[in-house]
Amino acid sequence: MEYLLLIDGTYAMRFMAFLFPLLRLSHTIRDRFIEVLRKAMYNSESCTRIMGVFGFCSLLKQLKNNNARRSIMGPAGGNYTQLSISGMSLLSQAAYGSASNPNLHFDMLTLEVLGILRKCLTQTVEVRMMLYEALGRAVDFNTMLLPHVLQFIDWHFESYFNENTDDKLSIAFDKCVRYRNDIEHEDQPDLLRPIVVYDNVGRLTAFMVHCVVLCDHHNILHDTNAVKKTLQLIVDRVDSITFDELGIMGSLDTRAVEIASQYLNVIEAAMAYSAWKMKPDNGLSRDLLRLFKHHQQCVEKFKVHQHDP
Predict the structure, then answer these.
(1) What would you report as the CA-atom Rg of the chain, rounded to the nearest whole angstrom?
(2) Which residue range or ranges hold the FANCI solenoid domain (predicted)?
(3) Which of 103, 139, 201, 308 could bond 251 through an S-S bridge, CB–CB 3.0 to 4.6 Å?
């Protein structure tokens, strides 16, 4: 298992596909695999941390039965239990296990994994993007994860839109993309300074749309009204954001290119949300068409700015 930490993370992720059948057969292999993933999450190499996120999210796909059900069913209930759970799992179990929570006996191992993945929101943008992608696939396979995933990620999503009103949309791209501010580059003009990308708000918005759609489709008992309100505001107002508000003036530098790309991703997520809400009698096809045209116009304008002297 330790070999996964020594090879390139991309190859390690491919190798994992051959390990998952073994995890169902052996508690020892499963627990050893989890130990390796824990180490991967704190590795200095970004590709290894990405592998750790991928591994944990892939594991979540298979944790569908809760401990209470397995304790009744015995061996027929599945092999995914863990005797040595962490304090995070116990605290999460106590916090989530209430009479008002439909997942009273939600799997402790699942909660432990989600507690580990929560820390990815302080990691690099590559790790965060893998989290959005792999966790999106996990909730597809295991909808029981949705309330717990939304509980720890919706505040992160809202932090990029917390200065909005009902008639004004503002996206905090400055939290996602910044010029590097170190001693080596402090005397250089902005156009020549390298940038640091912390997050991709477009991918995050697409992930939130995906989760909200699944919650409604599967009748998951979780309050998504606040997220829906923000998503609807994006649909209604994203085309009102000016280039000046995006910080795009004159020719595109590396920071402006990254912000433009993320802005287009936000529009695409808004289009997906509009398409999901669209019905034959509610006229929301106009929103989808409006956003599509705005997306095309932005692409053309960005091309013009890119070639400006």
Answers:
(1) 22
(2) 1-57
(3) 308
DSSP 114-171: HHHHHGGGGS-HHHHHHHHHHHHHHHHH-GGGHHHHHHHHHHHHHTTSTT-BTTB---
What's the Cα-to-Cα distance from 181 to each of 116, 184, 185, 186, 253, rounded to whole Å?
A: 30, 8, 7, 6, 16
Cα dihedral sign for 9, 2, 124, 143?
A: positive
Which tokens go with 66?
Answer: 């809760």
Instruction: Identify the DSSP state of 98.
Output: S
Calpha distance 264→12 (Å, rounded): 32
Which residues contact residue 291 at a Cβ distance below 8 angstroms, ignoring those fewer than 6 apart?
235, 238, 239, 267, 270, 271, 274
| Residue that is written with structure tokens 């994203």 in the block | 238
Q: What share of the chain is helix, strand, coil (3-state, %, to 5)?
A: 65, 5, 30
Residue 299, token pair as written in the block: 């692409």
Q: pLDDT per residue over 108-162, tens digit each?
A: 778 888 889 999 999 999 999 999 999 999 999 888 889 989 988 999 999 999 7
Give residue 64's pLDDT band: very low, low, confident or very high (50, 70, 90). low
Structure tokens at 147: 């309330």
Q: For 94-119, what is each residue's pLDDT tens digit?
A: 444 444 544 444 567 788 888 899 99
Query: 99 in helix, strand or coil?
Result: coil
pTM of the model as a whole: 0.81
Confidence of residue 184 (pLDDT cuts 50, 70, 90): low
What is the rounded distance in angstroms from the CA atom of residue 27 to the CA atom of residue 278? 46
The conformation of residue 17, written as its DSSP 8-state character, comes to T
Q: Do residues 283 and 222 lie in contact, with contact meaning Cβ atoms separated by under 8 Å?
A: no
Task: Reduce the DSSP state of residue 197 to 3 states and report it.
Answer: strand
